[in-house]
């Protein structure tokens, strides 16, 4: 079920989410054909507020001195989106938007160069994912048509990511994308002493 939802989400043309600029709540967003999306009729959700639209639910999962993690859950039941905001300095931050399945995170690497401080923020994202979310895998994806594909692969290989071969059961079947995977080390439950 999660893979089917992820496959649907990955069918949408890529939207840069490495350092996303958040749109105003009433902003008209670009549709699938490149033009602004037409307004859609409001949804009536049983038990909703009665206005016809219920916003996605935003839940703060974690906040410390540098890392803030929030979860956005759509009312239509699609995969939860996790927002990672890592404060690099007073002036700079790194933001990631990931899709969360039962045991994996999926993160798109958009076109363009990686922002300065990305490695530090990504390392924090990996630590949080393993320690707090208990995920088994983190997958990055980017277009196979990128001219810097070899550089990206080497860069993320240095951090511990490996190329995931097509047909892997945890990734959607997309011939136009490269997937890199990071497997978390298995954590052994602490043995109880009698």
TrEMBL record:
This is Ornithine decarboxylase antizyme 2. Keywords: Signal. Belongs to the ODC antizyme family. The keyword ATP-binding does not apply. One of its GO terms (molecular function) is ornithine decarboxylase inhibitor activity. It holds the Pfam family ODC_AZ. Gene3D superfamilies: 3.40.630.60. One of its GO terms (biological process) is viral translational frameshifting. It comes from the Eukaryota. One of its GO terms (cellular component) is cytoplasm. Residues 1-19 form the signal peptide.
């Amino acid at each position: 079920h999660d893979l089917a939802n992820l496959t649907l989400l990955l069918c949408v043309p890529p939207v840069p989410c490495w350092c996303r600029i958040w749109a105003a709540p009433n902003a008209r967003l670009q549709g699938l054909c490149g033009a602004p999306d037409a307004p859609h009729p409001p949804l009536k959700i049983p038990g909703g507020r009665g206005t016809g639209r219920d916003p996605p639910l935003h839940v703060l999962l974690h906040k410390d001195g540098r890392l803030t993690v929030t979860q956005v859950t759509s009312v239509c039941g699609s995969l939860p989106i996790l927002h990672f905001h890592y404060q690099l300095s007073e002036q700079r931050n790194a933001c990631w938007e990931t899709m969360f399945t039962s045991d994996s995170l999926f993160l798109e690497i958009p076109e363009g160069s990686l922002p300065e401080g990305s490695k530090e923020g990504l390392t924090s994202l990996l630590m949080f994912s393993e320690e707090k979310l208990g995920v088994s895998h983190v997958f990055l994806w980017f277009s196979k048509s990128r001219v810097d594909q070899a550089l990206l692969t080497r860069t993320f290989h240095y951090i511990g990511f490996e190329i995931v071969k097509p047909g892997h059961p945890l990734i959607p079947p997309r011939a136009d994308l490269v997937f890199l995977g990071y497997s978390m080390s298995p954590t052994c439950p602490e043995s109880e002493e009698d």
